[in-house]
Amino acid sequence: MTPARGERPSEVSFRSMAKEFAPRLYRHAYRSLxxxxxxxxxxxxxxxxxxxxxxxxxxxxxxxTWIYRIAVNTITSYRRRRHxxxxxxxxxxxxxxxxxxxxxxxxxFDRKLECERxxxxxxxxxxxESAAITLFYMDGYGYKEIASILxxxxxxxxxxxxxxxxxxxxxxxxxxERGEI
Length: 181
Fold this sequence. Notes:
There is one protein chain. By secondary structure, the chain is mainly alpha-helical. It has a domain at 7-84: RNA polymerase sigma factor, region 2, helix turn helix motif (Rna Polymerase Sigma Factor, Chain: A). It is built from 8 helices and no strands. The protein has helices at residues 11-33, 36-53, 63-81, 92-100, 105-124, 127-138, 143-150, 154-177.
């Protein structure tokens, strides 16, 4: 259970916070980085940073917003450090999922490949556009929360989402023209 806004988290509550936020942070990191190992490292580093910074948490924003702000900064630094942008979202576990899924096997595989293509394109966006797109469309955050996480204005979030969508359209069209999966 996370502390209420303005309430300082205790050492005991850190474990429960980590359990609560780690899965969501991992999904966000995975979507932004496209690599399960890097995503796990980024989440671990985020949680270490959160733990070290707990005494400095002033409660001026929701705890989740503060944690996501740290996560976005950590993921951004991982993206900057990463040299190889190759992403593979179809692994052996995914193949088993595709085989087990009811319905048309070819259709299920096509959906997985389309998700992989989208993820590769999101990874090519600027770190702020990628974060805004991922937080809004995949994590379900509103403009105000995203603005707080990214430490920017609500208007800037709208602009980041608009530019991110436009860049995604161009990137996706380019992958279709080149026949990329």
